[in-house]
């Protein structure tokens, strides 16, 4: 077992290593193994505040860290809903911060071969991409951190045997016996049945993991080459790719933003890219969208539309809800300090600034046009349209779309200088 662990971490043994230790048998055995390898560790423990014995576990892990001369970091997690997913996210967040604190780039967790089997089965039932179906890998690099799982090819039985032979004390997590969690049901009901049918299943899972991982990393090289460190691409180039590469390009972009996905979601996104109209978008949740801007596709954060409907003071600075600043001047010679001349009608005061509305019309020297048609002609994406601000008079005649349009209605004889800074 020591050889398997060393094989994964050997390139990082000269660095300080952040190790997550729960007090259970897996992470406690891994702590002893890394101590035997003379690893320079920082021990991190998380209290999920779900069980009475959590305090005892924290005290035990701290005792081990003190005994071995390792720094100890302790975190209480407050999780309201979606327990497993949120707990994972919070642990990852704290582990990365601990790594930064100790100026290292290596984080180790105690996931083992049985965990790998559970993950593979759950991913198959849920749907995933090639890497997802492989479960997880022994090491990967993301956001400047190496994440290592040196027990990935060590079975639970081997870990328990090692603990017994070396008289290693550990805690048993009672929540692992609960059937309210999907993973526990796989662990207690499905996997024992599979192992009964095929005692060599875990060895086959190692082969399965390695085969899929190798195929995945070959495909991922093509995907990263296609994207060239960008979150956008030409639709025409994307559609020339093989289906497997297309799926991985989408998966890779989602992974970079920590957006969870299933096989079905990836297929839906590709269908949107193939058939969706220009200037449309696919909502990914978690603040992101895939946006089609005519010939290109971009993965970007949603623009949050702030509702604005505010009366403008022509003789003072106007600060809007989105921190946009608007001011006016009657000195028409002062164009050096002001952006544009705004034409309006004194009989239609006061002026207002607001978001666009369905029936808004724009006036030009040749006639009028709907705002919607103006945007289409200018090829302006929908999310940008939703954040545009319009200056209108008391008759709701549009005098300006800030930065894009200024009224050309010949009936508006009065003029004033306009200056604005968007928030």
Name of the CATH first level of the largest domain: Alpha Beta
Biggest sheet, spatial arrangement of strands: 3-2-1-4-6-5
Name the structural class. alpha+beta
CATH superfamily of the largest domain, by name, is HUPs
Q: Helix proportion of residues, in percent?
A: 40-55%
Descriptive report:
The strands form five sheets. A six-stranded mixed sheet has the order 3-2-1-4-6-5, with helices on both faces. Strands 11-15-18-19-20 form a five-stranded antiparallel sheet, with no helix packed on it. Strands 7-10-9-8 form a four-stranded antiparallel sheet. The longest helix has 27 residues, at 201-227. The protein has 423 residues and is an alpha+beta fold. The mean pLDDT is 91. Helix content is 40%, strand content 22%. It contains 14 helices and 21 strands. β16 and β17 (367-370) form a beta hairpin. It folds into three domains: 2-200, HUPs (Rossmann fold, 3-Layer(aba) Sandwich); 228-301, Uridine Diphospho-n-acetylenolpyruvylglucosamine Reductase, domain 3, CATH 3.30.465.60; 309-421, no CATH class. The chain is elongated, with a radius of gyration of 30 Å. It has helices at residues 2-9, 25-36, 54-68, 83-101, 113-126, 130-133, 156-165, 182-197, 201-227, 235-239, 243-256, 263-275, 371-378, 382-387; strands at residues 16-20, 40-47, 72-76, 106-108, 139-142, 145-148, 232-234, 281-285, 288-293, 296-301, 309-311, 318-319, 325-329, 340-344, 352-354, 361-364, 367-370, 390-392, 398-401, 405-406, 414-421.
């Amino acid at each position: 077992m020591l050889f398997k662990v060393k094989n994964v971490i050997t390139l990082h043994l000269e660095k300080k290593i952040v190790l997550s230790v729960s007090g259970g048998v897996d992470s406690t055995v891994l702590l002893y193994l890394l101590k035997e390898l003379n690893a320079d560790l920082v021990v991190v423990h998380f209290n999920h505040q779900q069980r009475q014995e959590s305090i005892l576990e924290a005290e035990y892990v701290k005792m081990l860290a003190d005994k071995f001369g390792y720094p100890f970091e302790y975190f209480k997690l407050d999780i309201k809903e979606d327990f497993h997913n949120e707990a994972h996210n919070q642990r990852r967040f704290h582990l990365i911060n601990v790594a930064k604190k100790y100026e290292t780039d290596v984080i180790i967790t105690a996931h083992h071969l049985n965990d790998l089997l559970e993950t593979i089965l759950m991913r198959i039932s849920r749907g995933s991409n090639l890497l997802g179906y492989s479960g997880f890998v022994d090491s990967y690099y993301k956001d400047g951190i190496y994440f290592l799982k040196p027990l990935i090819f060590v079975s639970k039985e081997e870990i328990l045997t090692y603990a017994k032979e070396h008289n290693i004390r550990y805690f048993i997590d009672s929540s692992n016996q609960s059937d309210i969690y999907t993973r526990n049901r796989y662990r207690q009901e499905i996997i024992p049945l599979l192992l009964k049918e095929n005692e060599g299943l875990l060895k086959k899972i190692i082969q399965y993991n390695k085969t899929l991982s190798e195929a995945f990393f070959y495909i991922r090289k093509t995907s990263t080459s296609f994207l060239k460190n960008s979150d956008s691409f030409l639709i025409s180039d994307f559609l020339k790719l093989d289906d497997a590469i297309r799926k991985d390009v989408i998966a890779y972009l989602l992974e970079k933003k920590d957006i969870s996905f299933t096989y079905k979601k990836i297929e839906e996104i590709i269908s949107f890219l193939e058939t969706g109209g220009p200037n449309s978008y696919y909502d990914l949740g978690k603040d992101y969208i895939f946006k089609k801007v005519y010939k290109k596709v971009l993965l970007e954060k949603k623009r949050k539309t702030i509702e604005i409907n505010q009366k403008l003071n022509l003789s003072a600075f106007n600060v809007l809800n989105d921190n946009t600043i608007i001011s006016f001047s009657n000195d028409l010679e002062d164009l050096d300090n002001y952006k544009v001349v705004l034409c309006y009608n004194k009989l239609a005061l006061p002026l207002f600034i607001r978001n666009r509305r369905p029936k808004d019309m724009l006036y030009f020297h040749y006639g009028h046009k709907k705002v919607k048609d103006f945007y289409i002609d200018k090829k302006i994406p929908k999310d940008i349209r939703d954040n545009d601000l319009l200056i209108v008079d008391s008759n709701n005649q549009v005098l300006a779309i800030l930065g894009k349009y200024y009224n050309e209605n010949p009936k508006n004889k009065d003029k004033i200088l306009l200056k604005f800074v968007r928030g």
